[in-house]
Each structure stands twice: as structure tokens, then as C-alpha cells.
Write a structure and sequence with these properties.
Elements: H1 2-13, H2 27-42, H3 51-55, H4 61-74, H5 92-128, H6 152-162, H7 170-194, H8 210-224, E1 232-236, H9 242-251, E2 254-259, H10 262-275, E3 281-285, E4 298-304, H11 313-323, E5 324-337, H12 346-358, E6 365-366, H13 370-377, E7 380-386, H14 403-418, H15 426-446, E8 449-458, H16 464-467
Parallel strand pairs: 1-2, 1-4, 2-3, 4-5, 5-6
Antiparallel strand pairs: 5-8, 7-8
């Protein structure tokens, strides 16, 4: 209402005086007011000497301005028609100007209201909305990892071309680690922005939030490992360290994480410092199929939906076997096709290929391969269980984004790209992830895919000589 007040103060100070008490007017009053004005003009040459007429003399301009400010700040009602008594006869043109002034004031008020609402909407979109966790990413901070802005679109195109089909040849498999690194440069900030610091799924829990369900799913790992404060654990494919921090806080153990992506290393270290866990949690950049750790240097190990990126599961399981102490336990949540998957069903094949394309997977393994591969490298299989099966509640419900939520997120990334806050290519990456979410949901609903086929493995106590 500030613009209206300023206009009124200026008019009143120039000699226009509002009546002592304004009231709601109807259209018939306009004609009456005009007649009164003309009558005042004709009688100007015949002054009334009576004291009664002098008692109704208008107030001084300064007083009128103060009264106007107080009145219109207290009662800014757009239904009011603003007419003014005159200290002397006004020009008919000025009388016609008043309704126009009213329209200008109303337009200015609407413009201010729209501007404030727009600023609030932008603030909500970019600063409030999107940070899935209290200390997560904001929309305005989206980057593409260590890829420079001018290379994002090229890298995305290269990635998409490579993972268009499953990687069956040895030459293709050798290129997978580099493209997995590219993938996480492209998606890490979007994952943090829209999902959180834990890049994995978890079964829904009745009456619990997604964040609580994620924490319970991670703490289960520490319990399966019998992790204790004196233990040193290995997180195989740690991402930005969400599970690492949950397990360290829950068990008191020291945790070392390894990830192939250097940008994730920096993000994980920053989160560790914010959480006050940097003395317990360490992050290393490296390939989990050739880890830079000495033999028998960890009391336990785990991987949460990470080893699916390995072209050969034997390579990563063999490395975990090597760095574990004899008798040490290893827990892994694996992405697999289930017994319901049919390779001759085009709908099944498209869903699985869609998951592989959008998540940098060289090829999903069948559920009954996991335990055999573990035994092949020397592990004892202690327990095997698909955590996605009933009585667990669906893990994919969190992916079923409503149309408004998708439109909102899509609009944010498009606006950020248009404003050059986010680099070109972010829109394409976001669209790819949204399409992948639909394939993941279809895989969960049909039961042909599970992201949490759990195996608990033990390195035999007499495996010391073999590791040497």
C-alpha cells in the first residue's frame, strides 16, 4: 500500500483535502458529487457571511496530508471511491483526473504485490525446495562434478552413447570405470538435491519418514557386521558418505570409504566435517576393483548398491576378500533381476535395460549368481536374503513423483540453465534420471528387479595363508 499512500500525500499537500469521513460510494454518488462541485463554482462570487459556513472550512494542506496518510494506511479498501473537497473551486479537468489517479494507485499496488509474490516464489523454488536433507544441496548450487560447464553436454552425449546397450565385450568392460566416473560427475549434485546424501533405496516403514527408513536400512549393516568402536570398516563405493556417517555414528567404528569419483570425495569430506565425524570417517579416491589398501587391513566391510557398477563381480569381491582380516564379515546389498524376470518378455527387457542405461550399469546380474560368485573368490555365505520381499513394504514408492513435483523440479533446472546458474546439459541429465525412475518403479511393481538382495559373507579364519 506504500504507492497509494505516496500518491495521496502528494495530492493532498497540493491543496486537495479528503472529507473527514470517507464512505463506500455507489455510481449514483458520482453524479451528485459533480452537481455539488458545479454549485460551489457558481456560488463562489456570493460568499456566505454566516459563522456556520466558516466552521466547515477545510483543514490546512499539511493537516490534510497527515489525515490522509493515517486514513489510507488504516483502511486501504479498493472499493472506496476517492473524492476530495476543495479549498477553492477546482478545474473540471482535475475532477476528471481523480478516477484515473485511483486506477494508477491500484495498478501500482498490484505490481508491488506481484513482485513480492514473485520474489517469494523464486526463494521457495531455489533455496527452500529441493534440499532433501538439512545439509543437502540447494538448487542454485547444482554443478556437474569436476566437469567444466562447457563440456557437460558433450560428456552426457558420450555417456548416453556408451550405455545405450549392455556391455558384453571385454573392450567395453574396460571402459566402464571411466564412464561410471563421468556418470557420478553428472548426477551427484542432482542426487543430493532431490534425494539426499545416501544414494540408495530402502524398504518403506509404517509411520516413518523416508529419511528414517534410510537410516534403519544403513544401521542394519552395522548390526550384521557386529561393528564395535574399536573396529575399522571399509565402505566399498561410498558416494558422498551418507551410509558411512550413519554407520559410524551408530556403531562407533572408524570407517574408510572408497569412491572412483574425486568430486564425491570432496563432498563426502565436507559432509563429514559438518557432521563432526571427520575423525571417524575417511574417504579415498580409487577403483574398488584395485583398491589401494594393504592385505588384511579391515575388520569388516560393506557395500550398499555400489558393486552393480562392476563389470565382473569377481573382481570387486576378490579385492574385498583380500583387504579383510581372516574371520572378517562383509555385507553387500546387490542390484539383481529376480526369479520373476523373463528374458523373452519385451516389457521386462525394456525395464531392465532402462535401469542399466540410466544408472551406468554394465549389465544386471541374476539373483542366483551372487552367492556362487562369493564362494568362487573364497567367501563363506553366512546369509542371503532379498530385503525387498514381503513383509517389507515397497521401496519404490518414493520414486512415484507426482506430476506437480516433476513439473516443479523440471522448471527449476530449466530456469537455472536459462539464467546460466546451472550448465547446459543439466536438463538432459534430469530428464534421463526421471525416465530411469519410471523403469525402476516398473521393475519394483512387477517384482522383476530388486536393489537390496543382501548377502552376508565371511572370510574364513584360516584364509591367512591364501591372502599372502
Amino acid at each position: 500500500m506504500v504507492p497509494k499512500t505516496i500518491w495521496l500525500a502528494a495530492l493532498v499537500s497540493a491543496g486537495w483535502v479528503p472529507p473527514p469521513l470517507l464512505h463506500l460510494q455507489n455510481p449514483s454518488c458520482h453524479r451528485q458529487r459533480s452537481i455539488q462541485t458545479r454549485t460551489a463554482v457558481r456560488s463562489r462570487s456570493r460568499p456566505d457571511p454566516s459563522p456556520t459556513s466558516r466552521s466547515h472550512a477545510p483543514p490546512k494542506p499539511l493537516c490534510s496530508a497527515l489525515l490522509s496518510l493515517l486514513y489510507f494506511n488504516a483502511r486501504p479498501n479498493p472499493a472506496l471511491v476517492f473524492f476530495f473537497h476543495l479549498p477553492s473551486s477546482p478545474s473540471p479537468r482535475l475532477s476528471l483526473l481523480l478516477p484515473r489517479v485511483h486506477l494508477v494507485m491500484e495498478a501500482a499496488t498490484m505490481a508491488w504485490t506481484a513482485a513480492v509474490a514473485g520474489v517469494g516464489l523464486v526463494y521457495w523454488f531455489f533455496w527452500v525446495m529441493g534440499a532433501a536433507e538439512v545439509k543437502g544441496k540447494r538448487g542454485v548450487d547444482l554443478k556437474m562434478g569436476s566437469i567444466t560447464d562447457d563440456k557437460v553436454k558433450d560428456k552426457y552425449t558420450q555417456y548416453w552413447s556408451f550405455f545405450r546397450a549392455p556391455k558384453d565385450t571385454a573392450a567395453d568392460r574396460d571402459k566402464v570405470p571411466a564412464f561410471v566416473d563421468t556418470f557420478y560427475n553428472l548426477v551427484t549434485d542432482i542426487y543430493e538435491w532431490g534425494w539426499g546424501q545416501s544414494f540408495h533405496f530402502s524398504p518403506a516403514l509404517p509411520g516413518k519418514s523416508d529419511r528414517d527408513a534410510t537410516r534403519v536400512h544403513e544401521e542394519r549393516v552395522a548390526d550384521l557386521l557386529n561393528a564395535k568402536p574399536a573396529h575399522r570398516l571399509l565402505d566399498v563405493g561410498c558416494g558422498v558418505g551418507g551410509p558411512m556417517r550413519a554407520i559410524a555414528a551408530h556403531s562407533g567404528s572408524n570407517v574408510v570409504g572408497i569412491t572412483i569419483n574425486d568430486y564425491q570425495v570432496n563432498r563426502a569430506r565436507a559432509h563429514n566435517r559438518k557432521a563432526g565425524l571427520d575423525s571417524q570417517c575417511e574417504v579415498v579416491c580409487g577403483n574398488f576393483m584395485a583398491m589401494p589398501f594393504p592385505d588384511a587391513s579391515f575388520d569388516g566391510a560393506y557395500s550398499i548398491e555400489a558393486t552393480c557398477h562392476a563389470p565382473r563381480l569377481q573382481d570387486v569381491y576378490g579385492e574385498v576378500f583380500r583387504v579383510l582380516k581372516p574371520g572378517g564379515l562383509y555385507v553387500s546389498y546387490e542390484w539383481v533381476t529376480t526369479a520373476l524376470y523373463r528374458a523373452d518378455d519385451p516389457a521386462h527387457v525394456e525395464a531392465i535395460h532402462g535401469i542399466e542405461r540410466g544408472d551406468a550399469l554394465p549389465g544386471l546380474r541374476h539373483h542366483d549368481e551372487i552367492a556362487d560368485i562369493a564362494r568362487e573368490v573364497g567367501f563363506q555365505v553366512v546369509k542371503e536374503l532379498d530385503l525387498a520381499l514381503p513383509p517389507s513394504l515397497p521401496w519404490w514408492t518414493r520414486l512415484k513423483m507426482g506430476k506437480f513435483a516433476y513439473w516443479r523440479n523440471s522448471l527449476v533446472v530449466r530456469v537455472l540453465t536459462l539464467l546460466r546458474i546451472a550448465p547446459k546439459g543439466v536438463v538432459e541429465v534430469h530428464e534421463m534420471l526421471f525416465d530411469t525412475a519410471k523403469h525402476l518403479t516398473r521393475g519394483g511393481e512387477t517384482g522383476i528387479f530388486s536393489p537390496m538382495h543382501m548377502v552376508l559373507l565371511r572370510k574364513p579364519a584360516d584364509a591367512a595363508d591364501e591372502s599372502k
